[in-house]
Structure formats: structure tokens, C-alpha cells
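User: Please fill in residues for this 118-position structure.
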């Protein structure tokens, strides 16, 4: 069943069929603080499929991308469960905070925070 997904960031909203690029570069859709050098300029991609699945892909980052403590192979996307999986980039977590949901849609806010802080 197709599900409409929206991921909200300070830079805009991203929905089905769109890609969100995360990193320190100003060319990214989700820009992390420049002083955080554990995050690469282009660190990872978050892809929302047309059907509403969310995939994450490390873009060959220096410090890696980890899902539930397991380092991703660069350039190999894996499906992400935003409510149950932990996404670590450098020394920070990317959190999907659920704003709204029902059977046909879900809305998340993407948050960037130091690991170890809830």
C-alpha cells in the first residue's frame, strides 16, 4: 500500500519520490553545523520512494553512517524504519520525530543532535 511520507527540515519539506542530502556543504538539503567535522561535506542521502519507503545511503563519508550500530557500506541503500532505527552520522544522531500519522500518511521532523543526548 502506498503511503505519503513528509520529512520536514529547516530547509524545506521532502515527500515521496524525493531525495534529501545531508552534510556540511551548503549544497546539501539538510546542512549540519560546519564546526562538526565528524560529518562529511556530503555525508548521506535519504530517499523517499514513490510508495513511501525511506532508504538511507552513505555517500562515502569519512566517519561512516551507522544504523542500529552497524556501519553501512558506502553507496548501498538500505531501508530505514524512522520510528525504530537509530541513525548515527559522525558523532551525532539524526532523529525522525513523528509529528502526525495515520494509515495513509506520516509526517516527520528531522533533528540533528549529539549522540548520547535524548
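Assistant: Residues filled in for all 118 positions:
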Amino acid at each position: 500500500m502506498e503511503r505519503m511520507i513528509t520529512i520536514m527540515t529547516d530547509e524545506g519539506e521532502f515527500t515521496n519520490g524525493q531525495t534529501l542530502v545531508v552534510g556540511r556543504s551548503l549544497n546539501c538539503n539538510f546542512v549540519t553545523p560546519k564546526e562538526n567535522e565528524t560529518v562529511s561535506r556530503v555525508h548521506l542521502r535519504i530517499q523517499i520512494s514513490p510508495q513511501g519507503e525511506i532508504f538511507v545511503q552513505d555517500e562515502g563519508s569519512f566517519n561512516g553512517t551507522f544504523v542500529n550500530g552497524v556501519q553501512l557500506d558506502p553507496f548501498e541503500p538500505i531501508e530505514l524504519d524512522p520510528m525504530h532505527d537509530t541513525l548515527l552520522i559522525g558523532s551525532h544522531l539524526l532523529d525522525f520525530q513523528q509529528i502526525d500519522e495515520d494509515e495513509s500518511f506520516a509526517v516527520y521532523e528531522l533533528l540533528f543532535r549529539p549522540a548520547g543526548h535524548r
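For context: The chain has one domain: 4-114.
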